[in-house]
Amino acid sequence: MNERKYFVHPTAVVEDNTTIGEGTRIWHFAHVRRGAKIGKNCNIGKDVYIDVDVEIGNNVKIQNGVSIYHGVKVEDDVFLGPHMTFTNDLYPRAFNQDWELVPTLVKKGASIGAHATIVCGVTIGEYAMVGAGAVVTKDVPPFGLAYGNPARLKGFVCYCGRKLEEKVSEDENYVIFKCSHCGSEIRVKQEHYKRYLKENKL
């Protein structure tokens, strides 16, 4: 008899035909639907809902009350803050029988703050950070810092999560920042930096 290598709290519901990686923990009253794929060493908090065929990578931390609907893919090392939610339909009606699924992608290392809403069809880039309560209606670039309603690109963050303030150099392709906290150098594409300047009228 194979002993499962992940933890499911007795009150959680995990449907058949799911894939759950070693070391993952699924806590009180969570619901994981059929076809969902969850990687290794994830933490699925209380009251989390993971819909049909959702894909979640390794080392993902999902805080209490998060809803992840069909069409969402979450890559490795992502943080999803308490009670944030995704959508998957741009024209929702209770009586609509032929609605169109619109996918959403959260890339490696990104963090999304508490009570944020991610409108479907966007990509949250690598190591980006979305502020608490934000309503995200368009893509957030790698290392981008976005917050507000609707969310705007308000700067860039380091791997460690701190806002980048020190610009050390730039060329036609990249702006290079140095993190004052950990010393890492982060390369931001010029197109993303110009978007930041435009959105903030700088």
UniProtKB/TrEMBL annotation:
The keyword Ribosomal protein does not apply. CDD domains: LbH_WxcM_N_like. GO terms for molecular function: transferase activity. The keyword Repressor does not apply. InterPro entries: Hexapep (IPR001451), Hexapep_transf_CS (IPR018357), Trans_hexapeptide_repeat (IPR050179), Trimer_LpxA-like_sf (IPR011004). Keywords: Transferase. This is Acetyltransferase. It comes from Thermococcus argininiproducens.
